[in-house]
Amino acid sequence: MKNVRLGVVGVGAMGSFHASSVMEQKVGRCELTAVCDVNPAALAKFDDKILKFGKSGELIRSGACDAVLIATPHYGHTTIGIDVLEQGLHLLVEKPVSVHKADCDRLTAAHRGKRQVFAAMFNQRTDPHYRKVKQLIDSGQLGELVRVSWIVTSWFRTDAYYASGGWRATWAGEGGGVLLNQCPHQLDLLQWLCGMPVKVCGFCGLGKRHSIEVEDEVTAYLEYANGATGVFVTSTGEAPGTNRLEIAGDLGKVVVENNKISFTRNESSARAFCRTAEGLFASPDVWNVEIPANGFGGQHVEVLQNFINAILDGAALIAPAREGARSVELANAMLYSSLMGRAVDLPLDGRAYERVLKKLVAISGKKKIGRKAGPVTYDVSGSFRGTQK
Questions:
Q1: What angle do CA 278, 283, 285 make, to 5 degrees?
Q2: Does residue 378 contact residue 133 with C-beta atoms inside 8 Å?
Q3: How confident is the model at residue 378 (pLDDT cuts 50, 70, 90)?
Q4: Annotated domain spans of the chain
Q5: Over 70: is that where the pLDDT of 199 sits?
Q6: 139-175 pLDDT, tens digit each
Q7: Is the N or C terminus of the chain more exposed, i.e. has fewer CB atoms within 10 Å?
Q8: What architecture is the 128-294+327-384 domain classified under in CATH?
Q9: In terms of CATH architecture, what is 4-124+298-316?
């Protein structure tokens, strides 16, 4: 195989962007051969050289594709993804990998092994500042994790946004709110950098800032196996918002804000200094280091190119889908904890959360947005700059 024949299922805002990236030859050794959408108008913008389908199963079985990219509303990621994998095609799925952990398990169970490439679209892993922080942690320069705090409230959304699609901000359509729609990237990065916690206690406001069913404001407390703690705060109802990641270790502290990295490095271990210093109010001397990490990575195009390279060359994936499923588990744990009114242990009981979610889906749609949406213009370019979608 010299080139990968790609099909895109769901050619709304993000699906169209991915398709355009291929058609504009921003992705090497890849050819867009087929598109699929339930909306005929979405298909009309593609020329007749590209096969068009109204049903995903027809595209998957057309013989025109070696790989499929799924960019549908969330629940379709699981059902369509399973079909893709079972038919032996390679799969790249937009975030979130699935709506809930039990569906993630069903999807990953359909994966046939290493020869079948299965990736997730976690494009912020390509950003230089997060890659630098990952390097600091993995190299041991930060020492053992002590505390993490991420305040990411720069996801402000209007009622017009939520009214722009009937599936938005409903349990039946999205399966969640800010945690499932806006924050999968931050939750993925959180576990990528710091690992998974062993306990989560979540406090989620359902329709607190908007007339919606699902969570639009969240504060969660995390505990890690080594005793480290964390706090994750997000909202779509706060303006101006903040995006500040702070990770403290035994050897110092790193802060990422405004796409810049500040590293305050202890000259000695805080733990060792605490045990040996004679001064009552002494503290380790520090070096203040500004770490260069300018601009943004290749974002969606880089992840898509990496997917193609993995198929053709066996390249290591930037974001394997099995790793991407961990962000779903974190989101589910925060919601489940809040709904149950107690802390929950991880690994999460995915089936227990699924039962609770199904009850919410059964009554979904009764709470409506208090205004009608006007004409909608999608500019997804802001999605690639940290905290916009």
A1: 115
A2: no
A3: very low
A4: 4-124+298-316, 128-294+327-384
A5: yes
A6: 999 999 999 999 999 999 999 999 988 888 999 999 9
A7: N
A8: 2-Layer Sandwich (3.30)
A9: 3-Layer(aba) Sandwich (3.40)
